[in-house]
Amino acid sequence: MSTGQRVARARRRLGWDQAQLAAAVGRSVSWVSKVETGRLPLDRMSVLGQLAEVLDVEVIELTGQPYRHDSSELDSGHAAIPGLRLALQQATMPGGALLLGAVEPPSLAEISVRVKAAERLRQDAKFTALGDVLPQILRDLIVACDIAEGDDLSRAESLMLRASHMARVSSNLLGHHDLGWSAVQRELVAAERAESPALRAAARWDLCGVWLYEGEVTAARDMALRALDDLEPDLSTADADIRSLWGAMHLRAAVAWSRLWDRSEAESHLAEARRIAADLPADGNVFQTQFNAVNAEIHSVEVSLELGHPRDVLSRSELVDVMHIASGERQSHFWVCTAAGQMMNGKAEAAAGSILRADAVAPQHVRNRPVARNLVDDLRSSGRNARTEEIRRLAGHMKLS
Can you tell me the distance from the alpha carbon of 142 to that of 236, in angstroms, rounded to the nearest whole number? Predict the structure, then answer.
């Protein structure tokens, strides 16, 4: 089923006609009709989230996630989900280490090397390769965290937080949001056991990510604001990690406010993030936040898209030096947002070029994103252009009928 067909199914289950749904979301009957028939793509999470809320369903019921593909490479790590699920269950239950038996874990130094290598796979959106190594990293850390003492406990829990973050990202991307929640729960425990304000902020930053994926925008906003309040007293220490997390949390708040269609608040948080980023390293990536000046500008493009300001998307995208961020996932995200803005401006050929560029950078990221899939589906059916055949091939890879 298409996203529009799923919207229609959820509407009918409530016993509503199109006029009732239109009234509930403040749109016209024509708009609802175009969404349900696929003539209008749902290329903004703000709109998908609003529809899910009024229809009383989870976002994934409208998006149809998780998506499965024919090859293991394009399947983007789905084969690892059973092992990842078990590892996260063991990591979050009391006494989970006992279930693994009497095993001697590798040294924290060795695990740290493996975590760092896995983080590179996560930034490059190579989720199949990440899925091959992450469950075992988590299992080793379960035991390491159980036996560690003193300074080693803080080191072990910091590594657990970083590994759980990767589990959260891959789970949410693939549409397994329950696993994303389990992963971030373990992050929050890690932060408390390590008694670290930075780890606590990193875990809360990730919790906002879970709620944004699930369409729980108000909860994400409230957590971001609470985390900012808690971080503010620590800003005076001039600690670079704390300042990076402060900026990253403002970016979370900006996205949340944009999905609530509050431009003033979104732009205010975006401005503060830019201010902080200007004084931090250009390649900053504290706790995998990729908080740096380039990512702040990528967020400005996303904010304009979610607010429904396509001209701002294009003007802001022209200012992003996207090749200077060391993350294929972030580069791909930028090109997807740009493509959506170009399509909203009636620039179908440019949009096709941008979405194809996104797919070339990080195909596993693009092919699992509902908004990217809806955009490809719309491009395929919107008429011929110089990239039509390439778009059709991409639609075939995405299993779009």
Answer: 35
Domain boundaries, the chain: 3-63, 71-195, 197-292
Cis peptide before 106 (omega within 30 of 0): no
Radius of gyration of the CA atoms of the chain, in A:
21
**326 phi and psi angles, rounded to 5 deg:** -85, 60
Residue 82 three-state SS? helix
Q: What is the mean pLDDT of residues 278-295?
A: 95
User: Is the domain covering 3-63 a CATH 3.40.1180.10 domain?
Assistant: no
Q: For residue 103, how many other CB atoms are within 10 A of its CB?
A: 10
List C-alpha distances in Å: 37 to 3, 212, 345.
9, 26, 21
- Summarised one tens digit per residue, pLDDT across range 102-133 is 678 899 999 999 999 999 999 999 999 999 99
Predicted TM-score (pTM) of this structure: 0.90
102: exposed, middle or buried (C-beta count within 10 Å: 0-12, 13-18, 19+)? exposed
Write out the two tokens for 141. 């850390």
Q: How far apart are CA 317 and CA 141, in angstroms?
A: 40
Question: 103: helix, coil or strand?
Answer: coil
CB 137 within 8 A of CB 86: no
Distance in angstroms (rounded) separating the CA atoms of residues 397 and 238: 48
